[in-house]
Amino acid sequence: MYSGFLLAATDGGVVDGLKHTATEVGEKFGFNTQLFVSQFIGFFVLAFLLQRFAFKPLLALLDERQKKIADSLAAAEKMRADLAKADEDRKRVLAEAGAQATKIIEEARAAAAKIAESETQRAVAAAADIIAKAKQANEAELNRMRAELRKEVGRLVVAASVQVTGKILSAEDRQRLAQETQQQFAA
Questions:
Q1: Whole-angstrom Cα distance, residue 13 to residue 114?
Q2: Residues contacting 11, CB < 8 A, separation 6+
Q3: Cα separation of 104 and 96, whole Å?
Q4: Residues 171, 133: Cα–Cα separation, whole Å
Q5: CA 174, 176, 180, 186 torsion: positive or negative?
Q6: Closest to 179 in 3D by CA, of 145, 162, 171, 164
Q7: Following DSSP, what letter does each residue of the chain receive, concatenated?
Q8: Mean pLDDT throughout 6-13?
Q9: What number of CA atoms fall less than 13 Å from residue 80's CA on the CB side?
Q10: Which residue has the higher pLDDT, 113 or 9?
Q11: Residue 171 above 90 pLDDT?
């Protein structure tokens, strides 16, 4: 076969040698030109039909599926970003709520301290008022008891004088004696 190729290349050129070799090979294998052309046309018709009715819809379906996957991935990424933002917002809101709660607690403690101080002052004032009133009442009671004691001492002095002197004192004498006794007690 190589010798025929070399001879063809030297005799009529390379192209003639290739034609001759192709013809020989075709004859050995039973090559039929009409059958080859009809199969060639059938192949291209089948390829066209497959391209048009099978591959294009299949490629469109694959493109659509790939687009859905890309959209799903983008949506998942967006959801992940939204979730991260929501988590950040939640942490920020919790921190703010904690700060506000601390502030409210401090304000409540300050208000309670003010109220406690105010109530303590009021209680001290009320206690001082009660003590003052008690002192006044005590002094009034002491003065009343002193007056009663003076009267009683005066009456006893008059009674003792009557018994000692044996005479009945007039109302004027009794009063004068009671006054003198009271003046001596007061001094």
A1: 121
A2: 17
A3: 12
A4: 39
A5: positive
A6: 171
A7: -HHHHHHHHHHT-HHHHHHHHHHHHHHHHT--HHHHHHHHHHHHHHHHHHIIIIIHHHHHHHHHHHHHHHHHHHHHHHHHHHHHHHHHHHHHHHHHHHHHHHHHHHHHHHHHHHHHHHHHHHHHHHHHHHHHHHHHHHHHHHHHHHHHHHHHHHHHHHHHHHHHH-SPPPHHHHHHHHHHHHHHHH-
A8: 53
A9: 6
A10: 113
A11: no
pLDDT cut 70: percent of the chain above it:
88
Report helix angle 56-165 to 171-186, nearest 10: 130
Instruction: Pull the structure tokens for residue 44.
Output: 């291209």
pTM summary value: 0.38
Rounded-to-integer distance, Cα 48 and Cα 54, Å: 10
CB 155 within 8 A of CB 178: yes
What are the phi and psi torsion angles at 170 (to 5°)? -80, 170
* Tokens 């018994």 belong to residue: 163
**Which residues have a Cβ under 8 Å from the Cβ of 110 and sit 6 or more positions away?**
none
**What tokens does 79 get?**
């959801």
